[in-house]
């Protein structure tokens, strides 16, 4: 099934478009907070603390929001979440404007993160419900489309908010991000036609929640944590490599090439019908990630080292988005439908947590041994993804869901 055919599925475009717009807002939010707080306080340290509070709150509370969605339905949770998010952003903007102390700004930032509507998890759950039954083979294409939307959002969003803030309008950047998030979440919530059904109050909810402890899902959380670690490490290591060479502009070129390769890879992956089981595909993609990271450790002349880093960046960029798409596909296969939104939210939180921890480790490695130390951490993270995918082959077999 092509992406166009997929979006012609009754009700699909109606929830995909607002979710895509909301994702752009989410991609803008973190950086918009940095610009806003830095402009108001003159301190990058304070901006970092507030942004960190935002990220931690999102990672911790996001799965709980997903749990509420599974329990009460998307409309009854996303609409209040969008309202709270709008109020939280207003509180942050006003606090920054009136010169509130750092702890107040951090608290407001945490509330912004905690109230983020879980748009990606909600959209993935809608695709699972919409493509149930005989249309199930199209689900990987749907998840690839969601991955494409997310990748585009993180290309457009940061560039958009940086342009607005650099023009001297950081408040406008923050409010624009919030407007997209609130509008996207609200419109998604109002799409009743494709809203997944919720369990009845006595529908065996405790049994369904135990599905989150199944070995297969635990493996997926581990894979997402380590691949998030790879992301976080590469952002530090590649930047350090470019600076060590005396060519800081090289980092932007490498990141742009990486994003382009990833977009192309997931675009092609979603268009093909693959005959191998998703767990086998995950193992293959994870091995490709591990092997593709090895050129990052190339030694020799500066030209050889540069060629190795370029090759490593491009090869891993092709594997990473495929691993993430397959993670969503396998979560749909090993987790009961009654906790599916929460499961998707946990995978997102795992990636974020892995990225945050790995970025700190990579920073310490770069400070101690230079860019090569950071690249070594990246290779270790890629190897962790490979090891977990291979070790979890048995656990990732599909299960019968109630």
UniProtKB/TrEMBL annotation:
What's in the keyword line of the UniProt record? Membrane, Transmembrane, Transmembrane helix
| Any single Pfam family the record assigns to this protein | MFS_1
Q: Upper lineage ranks?
A: Bacteria, Bacillati, Actinomycetota, Actinomycetes, Micromonosporales
Q: Which InterPro entries match?
A: MFS, MFS_trans_sf
Q: What is this protein called?
A: MFS transporter
Keyword Transmembrane annotated: yes
Domain of life per record: Bacteria
Membrane spanning segments where?
12-37, 77-98, 104-127, 148-165, 171-190, 211-243, 249-268, 280-298, 304-331, 343-366, 372-396
